Amino acid sequence: MADTWLTAFTVSDFQDLLDLLKKHPDWRAALRQHILPDDLLEIPARRRRSAESQRRTDETLAALALRQDRLAAQLEAPTGRVDALNARTARATPVLWLDSGVNSEVTATAGVAARTGAHLLLEALARHGVDTLFGVPGHGAYPIYDALNDVAAIRPYVGRNEQGVTFAAEGFASATGRVAVATSVPRAGLTNAATAIWEANDMPSRLLFLLEADPSHRAILGPICRYHEIATSAEAIVPAVEGLLARLTRGRPGSAALEVPQAVLAGGVAAQPRAASGTATTHAIPASLPGIAEALVTAHRPLLIAGAPAADAPEALTHLAEALGAPVLVDGRGKGAIPDRHALALGMSWARLRPAEELVAAADVVLAIGATDAPIDVDEGSAIVAQRPTEWRARHLLQIDWDGARSGVTRGAAFGHVPTLLDALAGHIPPRRGDSGWEPGQMAAAREAFRRYAAETVPWALPLWHHLRASLPEETILCADSLVGLWTARLYPVDRPRSFLYPWGTGTLGRAVPAALGAARAYPHRPVVALMGDGAFMYNAQELATAALHGQKIVVLIANDDGYGAIKHNMTRMFGRSIAHELRNPDFVALGRAFGMRARRLATLDDLPTAIHDALDAPDSSIIELPLELRPPRF
Questions:
Q1: Residue 241's domain spans which residues?
Q2: What is the pTM of this model?
Q3: Which residue in 48, 284, 454, 575 has its CB near the most CB atoms, within 10 A?
Q4: What is the pLDDT of residues 431-473, one digit of tens each?
């Protein structure tokens, strides 16, 4: 009761009371029976503190409002149409969004049509063969997830974090070459997913990311997306979907984003969706291709460098190499485009070992097939080609790529749908008559250089790759992270395209486990293995729960040196000392078992073959902890 009385007592009241007490001193004793003097004296101080607090709050709100006004002014032009559309659609089809933060929910008013813009979106994707939607549900994505109840061809794949589940989508795309589709809540969901979107763009993998339209997204998506559309009406959804899918599949791969205003996603639609065009896709053959074929046929010592696009036409690449008698160097993205065991396969071009550089210097023609380390920009490529002088490139370098965005001085170039160009080029190349101009000793020297390089640099770790290759079936998809992944790219033989996945686009940590889940989603009957260090594993360890949720089986190999080993080595090499590389790890075996996985810790690498055999035979996912310390490769 006293607290209520004091709360209602103002400073003015207090002053009046003091005046009365001066006139009537005998009232003091009576007043003390109802309220303590200390409480009474505290009233003015409370009021002053409250007033000061309110003043500071008002100043803060005013500053925030000013910043908001400035941001709104900057974004007014690109978002005016979206805001107007939301208002019009909300009036035409009443949908009440009750936003209470993370507990937001949607209540549709009576009379809303059963079909919505989200239905059009999903149905358009389904007509193009999309069967999985990767994401985490939440405010802004609710209409899409609700429509999944009615579009049975697409099933949700729910993860525990937007970065992890978008990496799963990117792994799906990398393993298949198909378009993977992911979504998230706007703003914070997008920033969580941004690293995976960036990886897809630079890898490149074919990723379509769906979002509720928001003015803040443009600045985020611009640097990390190749294609970006906003469908501002229900009628625009299907053309936008088909246009983005066409760009991703017919042009240079990468990430694409489609934003749709909330009111359009949730708004009712009456018209039936436009059917996808049944016209077969044809790809033009540029007039320069026969000239490239002629240059290769007449070359005495041709050399091929295969990048990511070659993975979509491995048979054509192998035929081309065999017909020309041309050795093949691959960049990391093209690993497996020609089997590593093939007599003409010489490994990764960016190793920059002297024999490989000598091969390039000795070649009279070098064909770069969409290889990001072959075309010409020294900032993006390995020195094995980029260091060659302009005069050499003008005489010797040929290029096939999606477009001319990464072109420079060449003897000849053909741009278009790279698999189609490779198939056409292979058709122009007759089998070579007589021996190749390459001496057997030249290619043997390059292979021996790779073997000696590994033996001299990481002799104690060589059993890892020997045991992996001996124990894993040829069809295994191996997803690797961080330092151990760099070594695996060099030393683990791969004989199938898209069966070694590494974050070449960003070099980020934390991709291996979720990418393995995406690959396993695409190929549930193929063995899928994730290999990484202890530091990288903890970036997205929560996605082990996703594997359990979806009943997936993967094998997780953790090379544990209880720290950021590469950071320690690099700092010591650069500065003579190191700091901030120590880690405190959980018990990985106990962690795996907590997620329902089989788990074991190996004493030596010699135990790895048995552990892999047991893991592949088991019905559940497995964690295998390896005792392994590595140093970064010499680039």
A1: 103-266
A2: 0.81
A3: 454
A4: 887 677 898 888 888 888 878 877 888 888 889 999 999 999 9
